[in-house]
Amino acid sequence: MNQIIANSEYETPKSSPGTIMLVLLGALVFVYHLGLGIYRAVGLEPAPAFEFLYSAAYVCAVVWWLRAEAKSSPVARSYCEGMLVGLGWIIIIPYHLLKTRGVKGLIPLFALIGTFVVSQVLATVLYLSSNY
To answer: Model pTM?
Structure first.
C-alpha cells in the first residue's frame, strides 16, 4: 500500500512535444534578439553567420513546432511545411492555431511575441547601462 501511495505522490506531469518545441522556439527568439541588441549596443553589425543561422534555425523550429502540434490534431498535414512557413507564416500559423485549438490556440503566438518584447527590453536596458 505504501508503495502505491509513494509512486502516485511523485508522478510528474508530462509535457506535450508541442510545448517543448514552443519553449525551444521561444529560447531561440530570445537569444537571437538579445544578441542582436548586444551587437547594436557595442556598435557592431552582427556577423552574417549569426543572421544566417538564426534564419535557418527559425524556419526549422517553426516547422518542428507545427509538426509536433499537428500530431495531436485531426487537421491534415501539408505537403511541404518548410515552404509554406517560409512564404506565408504570418497567415498560416495563426490560421492553423485557430483551426486546431480555437482562440486558446493563439496563446503560443502571444507567448512568442512576449518573448520578443522581453528580449528587446532587456537589450535596451543593457544598451543604456553600457552607456553610463
So the answer is: 0.70
